[in-house]
Specification:
The complex is a heterodimer of chains A (115) and B (112). Chain A is built from no helices and eleven strands. In chain A, strands 2, 4, 5, 6, 9, 10 and 11 form a seven-stranded mixed β-sheet that branches. A four-stranded antiparallel β-sheet of chain A has the order 1-3-8-7, with no helix packed on it. Chain A is globular and about 40 Å long. With 112 residues, chain B is mainly beta. In chain B, strands 2, 4, 5, 9, 10 and 11 form a six-stranded mixed β-sheet that branches. In chain B, strand 9 and strand 10 form a beta hairpin. The radius of gyration of chain B is 13 Å and the shape is globular. The chains are: A mainly beta (115), B mainly beta (112). The interface between A and B is medium-sized, with 29 and 26 residues.
Chain lengths: 115, 112
């Protein structure tokens, strides 16, 4: 079974530029999560999708971050414009259902550096 | 608001030593607690998941315990090996959405 795929693996941009990350969850997984992991910290949930609907985006900086999962499969996370403090690893995870009884499987992450 | 803390932030031990990593959380109303391993440049690998009704889980040389009333969990690694070197993250699931709240991690180095 293929795992969670993310691309690109690394990205370097200048502040005020825009960037997009892509995630392909495990086949059949209805729930998709985007986490932000700043160096030296644990991951923090940015947004959670159930199929193509948003379950939780309370910690997503909506003035610059956006995410979509139009067909309930792949997802993209966009930052526009980027700030220096957005430098982090962006992790995508998926689970077969919504709720704490469903294990989350993580992708390798995208490391973003904003200069 | 749930907060998760891990102590120590970093740990260096000689090969073969038994060690304990600590995790504490502020709200005891959790569904489960998970321990993850993160290697440099890699994603998170789940090591052990303890349901709120359980006291401990074991997998090979790893044993995780959970004390909900005191808001604490420990990850015990027996006979450590250089291959155990990684960052270990503790996460709790408190709500019914599956959202995970992570600690900041403990970076472990096992020296040959």
């Amino acid at each position: 079974e293929a795992g969670v795929a993310q691309s690109p693996r690394y990205k370097i941009i200048e502040k005020r530029q825009s960037v997009a990350f892509w995630c392909n969850p495990i086949s059949g997984h209805a729930t998709l999560y985007w986490y932000q992991q700043i160096l030296g910290q644990g991951p923090k949930l940015l947004i959670q999708f159930q199929n193509n609907g948003v379950v939780d985006d309370s910690q997503l900086p909506k003035d610059r971050f956006s995410a979509e999962r139009l067909k309930g499969v792949d997802s993209t996370l966009k930052i526009q414009p980027a700030k220096l403090e957005d430098s982090a690893v962006y992790l995508c995870a998926s689970s077969s259902g919504r709720g704490s009884s469903y294990e989350q499987y993580f992708g390798p992450g995208t490391r973003l550096t904003v200069t | 608001k749930q907060e998760v803390t891990q102590i120590p932030a970093a740990l260096s031990v000689p090969e073969g030593e038994n060690l304990v990593l600590n995790c504490s959380f502020t709200d005891s109303a959790i569904y489960n607690l998970q321990w993850f391993r993160q290697d440099p440049g890699k994603g998170l690998t789940s090591l052990l998941l303890i349901q709120s009704s359980q006291r401990e889980q074991t997998s090979g040389r790893l044993n995780a315990s959970l004390d909900k009333s005191s808001g604490r969990s420990t990850l015990y690694i027996a006979a450590s090996q250089p291959g155990d070197s990684a960052t270990y993250l503790c996460a709790v699931s408190s709500g019914n959405t599956g959202k995970l709240i992570f600690g900041q991690g403990t970076t472990l180095q096992v020296k040959p």
